[in-house]
Amino acid sequence: MDVYQQYRAKLRTPEQAVQAVQSGDWVDYSTNVCFPTLLDAALAKRRDELTDVKIRGNLCFGPIRAVECDPTREHFHYNSWHCSAYERALCDRGLCNYIPMIFRNVVPYYRHFLTVNVAMMCVTPMDRHGFFNLSCGTGVAKGILDKADIVILEVNEHLPRILGGFDESIHVSEVDMIVEGEHPPLPEFPIGTPTPEDIMIADNILPYIVDGATIQLGIGTMPNVVGQRLAESDLRDLGMHTELCGDAYYELFKAGKLTNSKKTAQRWKGVTGIVFGSAPLYDWVDQNPSVVIEPLEYVNAAETIAQQENMVSINNCIAVDLYGQVSSESVGFRHISGTGGQLDYLTGAAMSKGGKAFICMTSQFTDKNGQRHSRVLPHFGGDIITNPRSQGYFIVTEYGVINLAGRSTWERAEMLISIAHPDFREELIAEAEKQKIWRRSNRR
Question: Which residues are identified as catalytic?
Answer without folding.
Answer: 243
